[in-house]
Every structure is written in structure tokens, then in C-alpha cells.
From TrEMBL:
Domain Leucine-binding protein: 41-389
Pfam annotation, one family: Peripla_BP_6
The UniProt record lists the keyword Signal: yes
Annotated Acidic residues bias: 410-419
Keyword Metal-binding part of the UniProt annotation: no
Keyword set, alphabetical order: Signal
InterPro entries: Leu-bd (IPR028081), Peripla_BP_I (IPR028082)
Family: Belongs to the leucine-binding protein family.
Organism: Geodermatophilus normandii
Region named Disordered: 407-436
Domain of life per record: Bacteria
PANTHER family: BLR6548 PROTEIN
Designated name of the protein: ABC-type branched-subunit amino acid transport system substrate-binding protein
């Protein structure tokens, strides 16, 4: 199994030196307070599809996480400790995920798992992580599975879950396309099911067909043909980027031209454009097929270079010295890493694993960062961001169509967000007070 370890050279720390990176503290006071915590380091672990069908795009997320942790380490780390980030390849296969997470916990002895990617993959390891008492933070998936404080007290989501995204999309379509005949194109798991459940709260009477695909089966002609035959003139997709490209190419071959609305997960124009070029063997060279497609956004994208967070991520990426350009996936990883630093700071000078969990529950709901909407963290909620906005893709960029809309699961009302957008700190590093 492929593995990558990022360990920045430890900065020399003498008695009385500032801990750096916010959160206060003196390195001379540091103790080896729990597994994965030494006097001068914090070891974190993650799993991603670095190879296989899900690797395009998603394999860039850990490079963004790495870049931000290196940036924090170069500025003193967290309480004088350097962050060591160990991530392993699971090829988006749940069996592999179980193996690599077992290795991260039992052999690498990480303090916490963060950013583990994928609904079916990460769901294979939540029981193990919770039974071992390992903090399982900020899962890279919008499944509602991560918000279960009673059964999974160590697991936390991060991005808006698919149900609230479905609700926001459903309300927008019902208000702006009231006569549309809606077809659903869904990944055949919790991703598609949660998105459909949210959308159906507003669109039940407009939906004329629902089609699902099995990840790995690249022939979606039966599903797209069925949507066309049902007369769907508006298709809402809860799918990953490769299936955005496949659905677009198939629709083009069938002469089928509905209005498309893809969830945030499947709508990155740069990645989808490259997939369209690959799948079409060069017949399509860019993402022009996506012009006019509707989608959602909850953190700033690289198509907005004037945004202060995008400017910070660009600086972090440039200083990292890694190959390639800043992408939305790398910005996503940096955003998660920023939240992780907030959690480590709030957990205190010499944290235990339980201190880290308590920090998210007690302080996480007030953390500010790149997200457009507030977090929902509390002792009773392990859900991440509370909302997003609707936008339209235009070339490599987008235009906003709504204000930031927030809601919760079930029949909670959808309202406009009341929070003001946060600016990054001048240092680029948060400075959270410890909860104790």
C-alpha cells in the first residue's frame, strides 16, 4: 500500500520560547500527554484514494493539508509542537481503508484521524476508531453518518451534509423552476440517498424519475436514457466528478439537453473538464459543456482570486514548494487543516484525545474560518457547516445566485445566514483559547 509521510524538520525550542502558531504555551512545559503526542510533535493520520478511479481531484486534498501544516510548522507549530501528517492510500476501497486505518492507529500510533475521505470507505472504520477512543475529525464526506454523538462520540463531520444541501437545492429549484420536470441522477449509497431525501422535501411533486449508478460501472447510458424517456427537463445529480463527465458525454451522445444541477461534490469545472477530455479521447477539450450548470458552494474557490482566503491559500501553496497549481481540492484540504489547528489549540497545552473531542464540542460552534456558514458543533451535534449558496458555472468560474442559506436536518427552516464573512488572521494561523 502506498504511503506518504510529511515530517517537517523540528524547530529548535529552548526554554521560554514562544509556542508559536497561536494557542499560547511554552515548549518547556510540554509533556507526552497521550498516544501520538510527544514534547515536540503531534502525529495525525488520514486515508485518501491516492490511486484508482477516485484519485483524480481527491488525491490533491492531502497535498493541501500538508502545505498548511508545513506553513504552521514553519511558524512555530501548535504550542511549540510540530504537526506530523501521515496519510495512506486506500484506493477508495473499504477493505483497504480498514487495513490502512488499522495501521495508522496501531502501528503509526497517531493522536487522531482527520479528513478521512469517502462515505463507504470511512464508514468501514468508524466503529473501530470509536472503540479505540481515537478522535475521528472532519470526515471528507457529507454523509449524515458522522453526526451521531451517542453511538459515535469520537466522529465529526466537516462539510455541509448532503441532506441540507438537498434541501437548499430543492427549495431553489421549486422557487425558480416550478414547472420543471425533475429527474434525479444519484450515486447508489448514502450520498445519493441523503441528497434525494433533502431535495424531495420541496420537489416531491415535480420529480418524474430517479436513477442510480453503482460506483465503478462507467456505463450510465441506461440511467440517462431513462431520464430522457421520462421527460425530465431538469436533472439534479448527487454524484462524484467522474460521473458528472460521464453523464454529460452520454447526454451529448443522446441529444439530451436538460438543465443540469450538480451537487458541490461533482461540479469542479477544472477537474470535470480534464475528465471530459480524457473520456472523450480529446474530442472535448475543456469544461464548456458545464456552462450554465447550477451548483452549490460553501468555501471560496480558486476562481475567486480576490477572496482573502484564496489569497492566503495561494501564499501557503507557493511557499510549500510542491508541484502543480492551487486547486479547489487543495484549498479544501487547507480549509480542513485550518479547522484542525483550531481544534488542537482549543484542546490545550498537553491535550489528551478526549480533550480534543471536548474542544470541538465546546468551542467548535464559534470557530470562524473560510466557510460561508457557521459550524453546528456542540455536545449534541457533530455536524459540520450549516449551509451554502447556489451558483451558476461560467467557464472556469461561477456567479452567485443566492445569499448564503443555512438550515439543519429534518424540517428545519431554511434562512439567510446572519454571520459576516470572516477574514483570515494576518499571520494566516488561528489563535484559539484553550477550553480549560
Amino acid at each position: 500500500m502506498a504511503a506518504a509521510t510529511v515530517a517537517t524538520t523540528l524547530a529548535a525550542c529552548g526554554g521560554g520560547d514562544s509556542g508559536g502558531g497561536g494557542g499560547g504555551g511554552d515548549s518547556a512545559e510540554n509533556e507526552a500527554s497521550d498516544i501520538g503526542i510527544t514534547e515536540d510533535s503531534i502525529k495525525l493520520g488520514a486515508h485518501y484514494p491516492l490511486t484508482g478511479v477516485a484519485a483524480p481531484g481527491y488525491s490533491e486534498i492531502p497535498t493541501g493539508v500538508q502545505a498548511y501544516f508545513d506553513f504552521v510548522n514553519a511558524n512555530g507549530g501548535v504550542n511549540g509542537r510540530q504537526i506530523e501528517f501521515v496519510y495512506r492510500d486506500d484506493a477508495y476501497n473499504p477493505t483497504n481503508t480498514s487495513q490502512v486505518v488499522n495501521q495508522l492507529v496501531l502501528e503509526d500510533e497517531v493522536f487522531a484521524i482527520m479528513s478521512g475521505l469517502g462515505t463507504p470507505t470511512h464508514n468501514a472504520v468508524t466503529d473501530f476508531l470509536n472503540s479505540e477512543g481515537v478522535p475521528d475529525l472532519f470526515v471528507s464526506s457529507g454523509s449524515r453518518l458522522w453526526d451521531d454523538p451517542e453511538e459515535k462520540p469520537y466522529t465529526f463531520g466537516w462539510q455541509p451534509d448532503y441532506e441540507i444541501e438537498g434541501k437548499i437545492i430543492g427549495q431553489y429549484v421549486a422557487e425558480n423552476f416550478p414547472d420543471a420536470k425533475v429527474g434525479l441522477f444519484l450515486q447508489g449509497d448514502d450520498f445519493g440517498e441523503d441528497g434525494s431525501a433533502g431535495a424531495r422535501q420541496f420537489l416531491e411533486d415535480q420529480i418524474v424519475a430517479e436513477e442510480t449508478y453503482v460506483p465503478g460501472n462507467t456505463d450510465v447510458r441506461p440511467q440517462i436514457s431513462a431520464l430522457q424517456a421520462a421527460g425530465a427537463d431538469f436533472v439534479l445529480g448527487f454524484n462524484v466528478p467522474s460521473y458528472t463527465a460521464l453523464s454529460q458525454l452520454t447526454a451529448l451522445q443522446l441529444g439530451y439537453d436538460p438543465q443540469w444541477f450538480y451537487s458541490n461534490v461533482g461540479s469542479d469545472p477544472v477537474l470535470v473538464g480534464s475528465l471530459l477530455a480524457r473520456f472523450s479521447e480529446g474530442a472535448i477539450s475543456d469544461a464548456s459543456l458545464l456552462d450554465g450548470v447550477l451548483t452549490t458552494e460553501y468555501i471560496p474557490g480558486v476562481d475567486n482570486p480576490d477572496n482573502e482566503w484564496t489569497q492566503l491559500w495561494q501564499r501557503v501553496w507557493d511557499e510549500s514548494g510542491q508541484e502543480g497549481e492551487l486547486s479547489n481540492y487543495r484549498a479544501y484540504g487547507m480549509s480542513q487543516a485550518y479547522t484542525m489547528v483550531q481544534a488542537l489549540q482549543a484542546a490545550g497545552q498537553n491535550p489528551t484525545r478526549d480533550d480534543l473531542v471536548a474542544a470541538v464540542e465546546q468551542a467548535g460552534g464559534e470557530w470562524e474560518g473560510p466557510g460561508f456558514a457557521p459550524f453546528r458543533y456542540s455536545e449534541d451535534s457533530h455536524a459540520g457547516y450549516s449551509g451554502m449558496l447556489v451558483s451558476r458555472l461560467l467557464g472556469q468560474g461561477s456567479e452567485e445566485l443566492t445569499p448564503v442559506l443555512v438550515t439543519d436536518n429534518g424540517d428545519a427552516e431554511i434562512t439567510e445566514a446572519e454571520n459576516e464573512p470572516a477574514s483570515p488572521p494576518e499571520s494566516g494561523i488561528p489563535d484559539e483559547e484553550p477550553i480549560n
